[in-house]
Amino acid sequence: MSDDTLTTVVEKLERAAAELRSGELDPERAAALVDECARLAAQAGAELDRALSAPDASPDQLRLT
To answer: DSSP for 8-60?
Structure first.
């Protein structure tokens, strides 16, 4: 995952959090948004783990194992 992609995921998560905090969502929309946040977070985590496990990863990077 590139830095740009990671930045995009973080921005989506921040917008979703703001929308959830607004308290103006109906329960179904809130549940769908929470599911989307979980999906985005899992995607970001998996991509970061792959990047850190790559053969060309810097030895200074922390491993998530």
So the answer is: HHHHHHHHHHHHHHH--S-HHHHHHHHHHHHHHHHHHHHHHHHHHHSTTS-TT
